[in-house]
Amino acid sequence: MYKRQDEYVFKDIQADHSLKVVVQPEKMLTDEHIAYVGGYPDGTVRPEANITRAEVATIFYRLLTDDARALYESDASTFTDVKNGAWYTTAIATLAKAGIIDGYKDGTFRPDANITRAEFAAIAARFDHSNPSISASFSDISGHWAKDLIERASALGWVNGYKDGTFRPDVAITRAEAVTLINRVLDRDTLTSSSLLDGMKTWPDSAQSAWYYLAVQEATNGHTCTMENGVEVWTELQ
Predict the structure, then answer these.
(1) What is the pLDDT of residues 163-186, one digit of tens each?
(2) H-run or E-run covering 228
(3) Whole-model pTM?
(4) Domain assignment of residue 198, given as a range
């Protein structure tokens, strides 16, 4: 994995090197409130199940702006375990070309592996072009490859740690945790129960009493909306 560099000074260069530079547009994720997560053939959404690296790549691919997709669209993956024609190949190849995701030192991407908290925070942080003030860190990320990216995502209010001061970077996250984080990145995290509309999709395994209910509804129902007193209010389902 790697972290984004805004600038870098090369010193004492003694051999030829190739350098890949990825230039990202300022706005890469859509402002439209599209449905970016779907359910399964059995009608469930499985919020408490883990989510894979390929699934996360596919979600962020769906959320790209038209301009970003036109700039980076690719179906040619360089990862040894992402085969041409797989359902996730275009998403992975596109986001890799954009510098948002990366693979492992052995050349693999491991699309079917569960994504960790660190990996997810890193992907989110790479979409940000601001310079947030980082005032604190977590007790268990010193020396971790994603330390700076985790701290950036935390400073932006996108990820949280635990009461004991840890982040637990290598713990796999669930689908509910993933959509909660994505909604924060998209500024789609101000729903209340009164925000919603009759006729929306609902899920038998996402009860209204669950902590993730509103986040799942936001992620699985396309809609237009207005903001009223800091709260998102749906106006029409799409």
Answers:
(1) 999 999 999 999 999 999 999 999
(2) strand 223-228
(3) 0.87
(4) 189-238
